[in-house]
Predict the structure.
Amino acid sequence: MRISLFLLILLPFTGAAQNFTISGRLTDATTGEALIGANVFVTSLQTGTTTNTYGFYSLTLPKMDSMGIAFSYVGYSPQFKKVFPDQSFQLDVELAPGVGLLDEVVVSGQRADENVARPQMGVVDIPTEKIRELPAILGEVDVLKIVQLLPGVQAGNEGTTGFFVRGGNADQNLVQLDEAVVYNPNHLFGLFSTFNTRAINNVTLIKGGFPAQYGGRLSSILDITMKEGNNKRVGAEGGIGLVTSQLTVEGPLKKERASFILSGRRTYFDWMIKPFLSSRIRTNYAFYDLNAKVNWQLGPKDRIFLSAFTGKDDALYIEDGIEYNVLFGNSTATLRWNHIFGQKLFLNTSFILNEYDQNISALQDNAFSEVLSGIKDVNGKIEFQYYPNPGHVLLFGAHYLDHTFRSSGRTEAQSGSDPSPGIDADAIPVKYFDEFAIYINDEIQVSERLSASLGVRAPGFFSDEASYYRIEPRASVKMALGPASSVKAAYTVMNQFLHLVPSSTASVPTEIWVPSTEQTKPQVSTQYSLGYFRNFRDNQYESSLEVYYKDMQNQVLFKEGNQLVETLDVDPLLAYGKGWSYGAEFFLRKNRGRLTGWLSYTLSWTNQKFEELNFGQAFPFRYDRRHNLSVVGTYQLSKRWSLSGTFVFSSGNVYTVPVGRIGVFYGGSLFEGNYFVYEERNNVRMNPYHRLDLSAAHKREWRLFGKDLTSEWVFSVYNTYSRLNPYFVYFEVEPRTGEPKAKQVSLLPIIPSITYNFKF
Amino acid sequence: MKKINYIIPLLLFLLTMLSCRKDVKIKPDSSYESQLFIESILFPGEVPKVYLSRSQPFFNEEVTPQEMFARGAEVFLSNGAQEEKLQPDSTFDKFRCRWVPYYAGTVPAEYGKTYQLTVTYQGETYTATTTIDQARVNLDEVEYTPEFFDVYGGHDGVILRFRDAPGEKNFYRFQMDRFLDTSRHHAHILEVLVNDCTNGEKFWITDLGRTIFRDENNDGQPMELYAEVSFEYRRGDTAYIYLQSLDETAAAFYEDIDNQLQSILNPFVEPVFLKSAIEGTIGVFGSAVRSDTVVFVYPQDNP
């Protein structure tokens, strides 16, 4: 294995004479935005590459008199360039959005679609234009809700943005915005994500076959790239919905050299619910988020980006002597510098800050409690991408991450008229620890049919309490079976030094992130996956069938009877065990035509085993759902009208129900009452979840004061047939008979909404 | 550290605005077979009592102690030198106006001896042993407190002060005996109590603490035990307070029970599975030693 890897790395450095290099950026012709993952294909040589996160590509080719190069990207009109190379040169290409791509021009010789051709598996790219075509909930189209519709991804609870990938817990997903980690990507207890779709350029989900540049989480990477801002003209777009409104402004700071984007969103949920609340309840809820980004092209080889994000939620609930305050939010800032050495070596250097804070306080029964916790990270990353020849990308780099955790809580008696002072955040003792990783990944076309992505990542963790050093081999291999089909296999090892202790079945911001300690060892997973990929009708349809097996060690759960506590020292409260998941995922997507969309079906099993839980026997993971089906479709009815719909079905969640009951009566040695007999954890499954969402959009383009103006009305219905899906089940004892009754709580019935969007 | 359950109140906020609730049928596990539940703690100088009952399927209606009583069991208690067969007996619970059956012996248990319990019921035999060798720890002081906080919230109650017996692992529990009449309600079941079969007479009641206090990291040191009381009181009411020293097996079972009570009916807390202290069935057989009695007079009405 090591020898093979070494040989593969050496391959590109041999026989490089009589070659030339063509490199450049692919951008949107109307905005200057980078096109991420766009295809660059040399028709005469039947070879090519794709653009990176910054729209950069590089191709080193044997010298020829002339050659044709096709540049293409989903949703854009492709371009075909004929070049007469006698030396290396730079070729920047702008692609125009393919308005009315009902009969898209097909460039002859265009390579098979990316899903078949690339060696990685378990990767799904979602351009934001696609996201915005889908049905909205409460007027908001949400990135994380779209992610939940992909194969291998399970949604959390009803209406929430939590997601679970291939049997992993929510903390095993690395959610990053412009490389900055977002620890809690939720607003409104998970009904919305913190990501404003209008500020996003691209979303990539990786759930298996991870390249070596990604690490730190076991189950998935959700890589979200913010827009750079229109560098050609000033524009604005916005939306007015039922619970939120938003506005995005972008434009050049210096035409075609520098641009900015500023996007904000704020809810008025608090104003809307007031008329519906009883007079004894006082509540307030507000959230907002703000995205900003500036990029500046310093020269043909240098570019800098500065992006920032902040989002906050503030909730208050007062009723009959109880008072709850919840305040939480994320902030990130990313400074990046791109530099191109020659035409084959691309460098990105990033300096990233991110912060997550939550403060929950409660006054009940004259007891005042407050829990305050926060995470602050300082990151440095450096990454090189080397393009020695077509079909070969060598990527290597290093990442250093400094974490500061703080957590405190207290409880004291308090009368309502004498409010307790809050915790002094500056006085809280902090925990420091660091992570680092070095990595190298080689993506190489070994032969016409065989290509591979081989890498190794070496992460480390050190704190005052414990140190861990690990090696993570990564390998993905693709064997082409024909121009439109391939078989892929992947093997990955991942480590995770942070744990989010799941404290409840609800997506409320009370879960605690804790670092690894001597007792709480890093989570580690080994995943094997195998897939068959096939496209039809010249890539109009793409399909895949993937099977996987994932083993997860050092998993944590609270010991029996435990729940959220106001202390960071949670080790004594934790039980340790392992988990494993296996399943099959089918994906069929239609990319072109009046009707586009996808169907995804996942059949999976996920189990866990903890010595201290369930009498030491294996039990199903709480999001073990046998069947998951999503059908997503958009139909372009006319130039102005489009219809879309989403249908989801999944098996119900599992939960624990006692099988027996013991009555204890006064007179014995026990406190009298009813005690429960449990035989197995997670022994009952809730009712299945299914839902149909529909929407219709009417778009109109017109000119006003010499400016192009687009307006759009979106009418959507969430949960069209008002299915009462289970959120959780609890028991109430019928007072007369003493018989326990199960009660199901459902959150969201049918919710119609209307949104007005504009862009100029 | 005090535990706080933030989840339910937080969800109240969400549910108030968005939720709807409905009854759902959960298919009862038809294969569930009733199990024998054994409960017995021996106190030196007192005759043994063994409570035997049958567990019920979870979704059944509540049944009376008589209906749950495991009739026809053969119960033997032996200390090596002497074996006694326990006989069915019962006590009238005046607070609830009902009979509570159990199996009783006639020979008081003795300190320093090891006892084996053997129960044969429906063809199965269950055995367990306990040794009554816990240190007897006397109370130094008992004090009333109008407000303290524990995992269940804020309460009024009493504080027991004592010095831990050094050199061994100890497990303590609160006990209060007092006379009541029906004007003093139970703190948690006020609306349920509708019977009055006392004709205004006072009756004797024992109030047991749910929480077990361990002497971990406190060996031989002064200790404080805060206890919530279950029944209402008036200024001048008299009570008799004890400190129980339990054996480790019984203490572990009581801790499970206490944890389970916190998790019961709470969908956001990991459920607690009872680990039986008796092989083959559910239950506990242990022993405890009581301190001397301290007479305590309530200085005020309950808040």
Notes: The CA atoms of residues 43 and 288 of chain B lie 5 Å apart.
